[in-house]
């Protein structure tokens, strides 16, 4: 089975309120890319991936006037994708939903939110002291994780799609304010990951097969504030101390070295025009699934040999989003 996670930058801007594609030469919300070019690029990437399920981060909006499921169903139908069924969870007000596109002939899926005394449902709130006043702070998800119960012909599976808090200091008017906002956002991001880890532990303790996938806006060694807090959110979710561990080989590589080559899943253009590359997107698997010899790929247009060697696919990956798909191939039959 092939499972992927893909953050599609401003997927929402490619659809009108009826969920129809705006297939024209007007500018998309991506820099210097038209809507038609981005749509065609996404179609090429999704077709080439040929995944059984894709966790889409920054999926189209669900609101009183728009519907993510309608939009994604239109996209899948237009380009004859076999991932034609759409699952969404708790809607949010950011115009960036989390959604699962999947092949109904390969699996069945339904939204199955859980709760426990340690970790309440993701559409509620969580209390944790995230500053220095020794008082619990109220933490919420702006984009509640999508909890999915998956049925396959071989074994049940749990998926949790994640889009954690961005740490970027949006709205800062000066360096001091940027520092303050960055630290505040880092606290919120870590608190969300603590909350998520409670849910992960709940499933692992129950002996369930689990995959946690999506954009964590974080990673080992990603910024200077990690030293202030001791670890990254990714490390929290993977497991610490005597906790049962999740595994992602790219996170493992990043954690094992301070210098040297690192995998990357996103490419952003800095104000000076240079491109920065970072590892933000992960597919973490539970111990039982790791024993099935899964294989991971990052479809980076320059680092993945197959993507680089296919000129059309390489360009499509660059036009489609500022993130690149992460793909997991795993045999669930044995």
> Taking Cα atoms only, what radius of gyration do you get, to the nearest Å?
19 Å
Supply the CATH class: Alpha Beta
Instruction: Tell me the total number of β-strands.
Output: 15
Fold-level CATH name? Deoxyribonuclease I, Chain A
Query: Which sheet architecture does the biggest sheet show?
Result: 6 strands, mixed
Please, how many helices?
9
**Content-based structural category:** alpha+beta
Helix content: 25-40%
The H-level CATH homologous superfamily, spelled out, is Endonuclease/exonuclease/phosphatase
Which strand order do you get reading across the main beta sheet? 3-4-2-1-15-14
- Cα end-to-end separation: 12 Å
Write the element-wise H/E pattern from the N-terminal end onward.
EHEHEEEEEEEHEHHHEEEHEHHE
Regions with little confidence, pLDDT below 50 for 5+ residues: none
Overall pLDDT level: 90
The CATH architecture category equals: 4-Layer Sandwich
**Total count of domains:** 1
Strand content: 15-25%
Shape: globular
Q: What's the short version?
A:
The protein is an alpha+beta fold. It has helices at about 35-50, 70-80, 175-205, 225-230, 235-240, 250-255, 285-290, 305-310, 310-320, and strands at about 1-5, 55-60, 85-90, 95-100, 110, 125-130, 135-140, 145-150, 155-165, 210-215, 265-270, 275-280, 280-285, 295-300, 325-330.
């Amino acid at each position: 089975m092939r499972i992927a996670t893909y953050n599609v930058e401003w997927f929402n801007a490619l659809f009108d309120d009826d969920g129809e594609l705006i297939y024209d030469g007007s500018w998309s919300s991506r820099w210097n890319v038209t809507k038609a070019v981005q749509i065609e690029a996404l179609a090429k990437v999704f077709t080439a991936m040929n995944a059984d399920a894709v966790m889409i981060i920054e999926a189209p909006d669900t609101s009183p006037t728009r519907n993510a499921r309608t939009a994604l169903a239109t996209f899948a139908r237009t380009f004859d994708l076999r991932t034609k069924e759409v699952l969404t969870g708790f809607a949010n007000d950011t115009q960036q939903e989390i959604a699962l596109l999947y092949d109904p002939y390969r699996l069945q899926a339904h939204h199955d939110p859980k709760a426990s005394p340690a970790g309440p449902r993701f559409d509620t709130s969580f209390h944790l002291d995230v500053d220095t006043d020794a008082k619990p702070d109220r933490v919420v998800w702006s984009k509640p994780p999508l909890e999915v119960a998956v049925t396959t012909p071989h074994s049940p599976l749990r998926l949790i799609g994640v889009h954690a808090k961005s740490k970027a200091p949006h709205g800062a008017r000066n360096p001091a304010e940027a520092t303050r906002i960055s630290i505040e956002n880092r606290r919120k991001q870590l608190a969300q990951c603590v909350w998520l880890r409670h849910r992960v532990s709940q499933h692992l303790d129950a002996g369930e097969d689990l995959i946690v996938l999506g954009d964590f806006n974080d990673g080992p060694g990603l910024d200077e504030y990690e030293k202030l807090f001791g670890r990254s959110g990714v490390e929290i979710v993977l497991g610490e101390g005597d906790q049962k561990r999740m595994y992602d080989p790219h996170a493992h590589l990043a954690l094992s070295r301070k210098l040297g080559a690192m995998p990357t899943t996103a490419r952003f253009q800095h104000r000076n025009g240079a491109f920065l590359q970072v590892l933000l997107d992960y597919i973490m698997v539970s111990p039982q699934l790791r024993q099935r010899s899964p294989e991971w790929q990052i479809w980076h247009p320059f680092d993945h040999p197959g993507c680089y060697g296919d000129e059309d696919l390489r360009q499509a990956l660059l036009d489609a989003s500022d993130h690149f798909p992460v793909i997991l191939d795993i045999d669930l039959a044995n």
